[in-house]
Amino acid sequence: MEVGLCVCVALCLFTVANSITDPSDFKILNDFREGLENPELLKWPGNGDEDPCGPPSWPHVICSGDKVSQIQVQSLGLIGPLPQNFNQLSKLSNLGLQRNKFNGSLPTFSGLSELEFAYLDYNEFDSIPSDFFDELSSIRVLALDYNPFNASTGWSLPDGLAKSVQLTNLSLLVLGSH
Ligand SMILES: *[C@@H]1O[C@H](CO)[C@@H](O)[C@H](O)[C@H]1NC(C)=O
Ligand SMILES: *[C@@H]1O[C@H](CO)[C@@H](O)[C@H](O)[C@H]1NC(C)=O
Ligand SMILES: *[C@@H]1O[C@H](CO)[C@@H](O)[C@H](O)[C@H]1NC(C)=O
């Protein structure tokens, strides 16, 4: 009887420990992976039951509780777009995508209210949606440099930026609120 209880407790703990990631965040990570041309470079486990937040967490992923708080994939050589639902990673605070070959349009980052650091530089993103900056209320460093944004005409800052970020650095290489 006692042994049975122990086994049950152990199994239950195991189950909990291995399925904690918020299902919405889990889906976005899988969408992110599936959009890439070379997802194997992430070394993320196959689509079994392994949990992005672990333990152990997937490579390049850091969680806070059951939510993804960081994705750090700089310099991996990843090719492809970001999923359009990317802004639903609601607890994302630090994003390192720099020095890859992410391309296509950036998805909106609207509503990523905890995002403080976003390194998107040295990629091949070609455009920024007009609501990209809406409600990016915590942003401190946003690096967009070395992307072929609007290569022939240059690009203008979407309106939302003026509303949500107090700019002190207008170089458009690194935008910071302080
Ligand atoms: C991204 O780059 C790859 C490889 O060059 C290309 O096949 C793909 O069409 C590009 N996607 C977009 C959205 O530009
Ligand atoms: C550059 O941006 C403007 C305004 O968003 C757009 O009308 C134009 O087509 C873009 N040019 C290129 C080459 O993407
Ligand atoms: C903006 O920030 C970048 C990175 O810190 C710096 O190299 C650049 O000189 C700054 N530009 C201005 C106009 O302050």
Write structural notes for this entry.
The protein is of the alpha/beta class. The protein has one domain (21-171): Alpha-Beta Horseshoe (Leucine-rich repeat, LRR (right-handed beta-alpha superhelix)). 20% of the residues lie in helices and 19% in strands. It contains 3 helices and 9 strands. It has helices spanning 2-17, 23-35, 159-164, and strands at residues 61-64, 67-72, 79-80, 94-96, 101-105, 117-119, 124-127, 141-143, 174-176. A 6-stranded mixed sheet has the order 1-2-4-6-8-9, with no helix packed on it. The radius of gyration is 19 Å and the shape is globular. The termini are far apart. One 2-acetamido-2-deoxy-beta-D-glucopyranose is lined by residues 79, 81, 103-104. Residues 23-64 form the Leucine-rich repeat-containing N-terminal plant-type domain. Residues 1-19 form the signal peptide. It is found in: Membrane. Keywords: Glycoprotein, Leucine-rich repeat, Membrane, Receptor, Repeat, Signal, Transmembrane, Transmembrane helix. It comes from Castanea mollissima.
What's the overall geometry?
globular
- The count of DSSP E runs of length 2 or more, i.e. the number of strands, is 9
Q: Please report the number of helical segments.
A: 3
Number of domains: 1
Subcellular location: Membrane
Main location: membrane
Organism: Castanea mollissima
Keywords: Glycoprotein, Leucine-rich repeat, Membrane, Receptor, Repeat, Signal, Transmembrane, Transmembrane helix
